[in-house]
Amino acid sequence: MSDLAAIRNFKRVVLKLSGEALRASGSHDNISPEIVERIACEIHGARQTADVELAIVVGGGNFWRGASASARGMDRATADYVGMLATVMN
Questions:
Q1: Which residue, of 5, 35, 67, 81, is most buried by count of CB atoms within 10 Å of its CB?
Q2: CA 14 to CA 51: how far, in whole Å?
Q3: Taken in order 43, 20, 11, 6, is the CA torsion positive or negative?
C-alpha cells in the first residue's frame, strides 16, 4: 500500500517534523528558508492530493542548539538550558 493510499484511510492526519528537518546539511543555522519552502511545497501538494485535514507539529528543541551557541561563545550550560526551554515552548 502506498503512503498516499494509507493516508486516504484517515480524515485527519498529524505530521510531526523534527526541528532538525528544517536545517540544511552542513549548516550552522538551525532553520534554512530553502528547506522550509521545499517542505511546505511538499506538504501542500500532499494535502491537496490526499484531501485530509492536516495538523503540523515541529519539534522545538532543534531551533536552538546548545552546541552551536556554545561554539559561538555562549556559556554551554546556558545554551543547553535555552534549548530545553525551546522544547517546552513548543
A1: 35
A2: 13
A3: positive
Q: For residue 39, count other CB atoms closer than 10 A to its CB.
A: 17
Q: To which H or E segment does residue 89 belong?
A: helix 76-89
Is 22 in contact with 36 (CB distance < 8 Å)? yes
Nearest residue to 20 via CA among 29, 11, 12: 29
Half-sphere exposure of residue 39: CA atoms within 13 angstroms, side-chain side: 19
What is the spatial distance between Cα 62 and Cα 48, in angstroms, rounded to a whole number?
29
- What is the mean pLDDT, run by run of 10 residues, along the chain of 90 residues? 70 86 82 92 87 84 66 82 76
Beta bridge partners of 55: 14
Which residue carries 528543541 as its cell? 61
Look at phi and psi of residue 35 and say left if phi exceeds 0, alpha if psi is from -120 to 50, else beta: alpha
